[in-house]
Amino acid sequence: MRIIMGILIGHREEEALKVQELLTRYGCYIKTRLGLHDTPGEGSCSSKGLLILEFLPGNEKEVDALEIELKKLESFVVKRMEF
Fold it and tell me: What three-state secondary structure class fits 60?
C-alpha cells in the first residue's frame, strides 16, 4: 500500500522544531518529503506551511503512529491518501 500524507502547519515558525523532531523520529519510513509555504510579499514569509510526505510501503503501523502524534499538535491539519 502507498501512503501519502499532507500536513498543514498553522504556525510554521513556532511549530518547526516539533515537526522536525517527529520527522526525524519517523525518518526511516519516509520516502519523499516536500515542504511548501506561501510567500505573501517580498521580505516576509507566510506563517502557514504545507508538508507532503510519501512513505515507504509496508510501514502502515509507523505511519499511523506518526499521524496520531501530528494530530496532537494544536495548529495542524493532517490528511492522508492511500493507494
Answer: helix
Rg (CA), the chain: 13
What does the DSSP 8-state code read for residue 75?
Answer: T
For the stretch 56-80, what's the b/e string if a residue is b when 16 or more beta carbons lie within 10 angstroms of its beta carbon? Answer: eeebeebbeebbebbeebeebebee
* Biggest distance spanned by C-alpha atoms of the chain: 43
Tell me which residue of 65, 52, 58 sits closest to 22, measured CA to CA.
65
Which stretch of DSSP H or E encloses residue 11?
none
Contact 9, 23 (CB under 8 A): no
Give dist(CA 33, CA 5) in Å, integer: 10
Q: The cell 492522508 sits on which residue?
A: 80
Span of 25-34, 42-51, 59-68 with lowest mean pLDDT: 42-51
| Global pTM value | 0.86
